[in-house]
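Table S2 (continued). Query chain:
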Amino acid sequence: MNTVKKTRDMVMMAAFIAIMMIMTVVPVLGFIPLGFMNATIIHIPVIVGSILLGPKKGAVLGFFFGLTSMWKNTALMPNLTSFVFTPFLTMPNGESGGIRSVIICMVPRILIGVVAYYVYRGVSKIWKKRKKLALAAAGVAGSITNTILVMNLIYFLFGSTYAEAAQANVEHGLYLFIVGVICLNGIPEAVLAGFLTALIVSALWKVQRA
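Corresponding output:
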């Protein structure tokens, strides 16, 4: 039975990674271009995978999400601020983002699955009969973790360089602009992630029980 579970988990991991690859390669499927950055729904396989497979595998899926993001911003769909997600592009001043870009691209994405899993577990313990509520909460938490960490790391690690590249109006302060991006992008992404997580995981549970 343990071997069967390991095999099933490996197949599911491969499936989630394949889905992320497809969402990366197919234009506007996983990353929605907004001009100065890409809104994303590619974090949903990471959230779903973490709930079904646990936080460690969720972190691994988040790592692969980070790799797809770096690939996308380097070669497939670079934009004016792609340097914050990849060390292989230069900033407006000609410098590379280096390790700062790697941190922004990888750390928030690895934490998506970890946060989503433990939020699901926590809400499930409080409301034991409301699994869909716990799933939605996990989706929202995973998504907002990504947005808040990415945008705050951009603020602290790149600051005015990012604002210049994004051609942002920072008359009232750069952080207000960052908060605006979090609200305009992050809230809709989080709501969608909560809805899709509850829908997808519930459907997969039914298939597993069948």
